[in-house]
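Submission checklist for the structure archive. All mandatory fields must be present; incomplete records are returned to the submitter.

[x] Identifier: SMP domain-containing protein
[x] Organism: Rehmannia glutinosa
[x] Residue count: 200
[x] Sequence attached
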Amino acid sequence: MSQEQLSKPYDKDCKADGDHHVASETKNEIVGFVANNQTEPIGVQVVKQESDYKSSGSQSEQQQQRGDITIGEALEATALTAGHRPVDYSDAAAIQAAEVRATGRTNIVPGGVAAAAQSAATRNARLPRDEDKTKLGDILSDASAKLPSDKAVTRRDAEGVIGAELRNDPNLCTRPGGVAASVAAAARLNQTNSLNNKSN
């Protein structure tokens, strides 16, 4: 998958929830992401990168020094950018792909983030009203703590998550600000940080 495919622009034929999304000039400040005060679009929102790194104890010392964004943190960013949307099967598949890549296991962890997402997607498919459905924010708000292990997002991780979301979406497209978009943005930031650290 090429870099152009990772940064595919928002297609108006592929709308999420039928909403009209307009790029906002406001910036969400998310503590824990480091990229020397760079901004990175996640879907249609812009995330301002903080210069101070606040991390959980699950990352290696080298990742903390470089400021790599982990898969769990990328999932938590999804909770902030798209937390109001009900969980569907494409979200559950993308979350499962992210969890499998973070843990290194080939199956999902019982009681983990992917299991909760799959359960929510199945339940949401049966409910007629959006108010009663489980939202992405409910599932992903504490993703870093729920994952048994975590790792920095790589381009391959992003490609796997994007593929899972695409395969399970009826329109064969990813959602702006969704799981795949957040993981892809984190992978791009990690790649930029890695290149900046190597040149210094």
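[x] Structure attached
Curator remark: DSSP finds nine helices and three strands in the chain. The longest strand covers residues 27-34.
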